[in-house]
C-alpha cells in the first residue's frame, strides 16, 4: 500500500501525458550523479532540513525525487514524507536521483542505513542521505561504483570525499 502511495505522489507532481515510445537516445539514470545534480541535491536537500513533515507519519523521513526540467536543469520532481524505518520502493521513471532526509541516525556511526544501501543495490540509482540530527546537516552520496555499493561524504556546497564501503 505504501508503494502505491509513493508512486501516486510522484505522479501527482508531474502532468499526466500519453506515454511516449522509448527513444533510441533515452538513457538510464547514471549510477553516480552528475556534478550539477550532486550540487543541487546538496543545496535543495539542506533547504528542507528542520522543516516539519506533513501527513500521517509522526517520525517520517523526507524524500525528494530529483529529475531534470525541459531545459536540462535539475529539479525536485516530487517531495513526500515516508516512514522512517521502511525501505524505499523503486522510484518512477524519469527519476535521476533520490534524496532521503533522516530525522535521527540508526547506525552505530552516522551515515547511510542498511535500507539506503539496499535501495542503491536494487536500483543502481544515486541516493543522497542527509542527517537532520546535526547542524550543519551531514550528507552522503550512495552509489553503485565498480560493481558494489559505496558511499562518500558531500560537503555543504557539493564538495566530495573519497568513496568508502
Task: Write a brief caption for the model.
By secondary structure, the chain is α+β, with helices and mostly antiparallel strands.
User: Which residue ranges are poorly predicted, with pLDDT under 50 across at least 5 consecutive positions?
Assistant: 1-12, 15-27
Portion of residues in helices?
10-25%
Give the CA-based shape. globular
Question: Could you give the order of strands across the largest sheet?
Answer: 2-1-3-4-5-6
If you average the pLDDT, what whole number results?
Answer: 80
Separate helix tally = 3
Account of the protein in words:
It is a single chain. The protein is an alpha+beta fold and 165 residues long. The protein has one domain (2-11, 30-154). It is 21% helix and 27% strand. The protein has helices spanning 2-12, 35-47, 114-123, and strands at residues 60-68, 74-83, 97-102, 127-131, 139-145, 148-154. Residues 1-12 and 15-27 have low confidence and may be disordered.
Topology at a glance:
Blueprint: H1 2-12, H2 35-47, E1 60-68, E2 74-83, E3 97-102, H3 114-123, E4 127-131, E5 139-145, E6 148-154
Parallel strand pairs: 3-4
Antiparallel strand pairs: 1-2, 1-3, 4-5, 5-6
Amino acid at each position: 500500500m505504501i508503494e502505491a502511495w509513493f508512486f501516486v505522489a510522484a505522479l501527482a507532481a508531474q502532468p499526466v501525458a500519453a506515454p511516449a515510445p522509448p527513444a533510441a537516445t533515452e538513457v538510464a539514470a547514471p549510477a553516480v550523479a552528475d556534478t550539477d545534480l550532486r550540487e543541487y541535491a546538496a543545496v535543495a536537500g539542506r533547504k528542507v532540513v528542520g522543516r516539519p513533515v506533513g501527513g500521517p507519519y509522526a517520525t517520517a523521513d523526507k524524500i525528494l525525487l530529483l529529475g531534470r526540467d525541459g531545459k536540462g536543469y535539475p529539479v525536485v520532481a516530487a517531495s513526500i514524507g515516508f516512514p522512517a524505518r521502511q525501505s524505499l520502493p523503486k522510484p518512477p521513471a524519469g527519476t535521476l536521483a533520490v534524496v532521503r532526509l533522516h530525522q535521527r541516525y540508526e547506525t552505530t556511526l552516522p551515515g547511510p542505513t542498511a535500507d539506503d544501501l539496499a535501495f542503491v543495490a536494487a536500483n543502481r540509482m544515486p541516493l543522497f542521505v542527509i542527517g537532520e540530527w546535526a547542524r550543519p546537516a551531514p550528507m552522503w552520496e550512495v552509489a553503485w561504483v565498480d560493481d558494489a555499493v559505496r558511499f562518500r561524504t558531500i560537503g555543504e556546497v557539493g564538495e566530495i570525499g573519497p568513496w568508502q564501503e
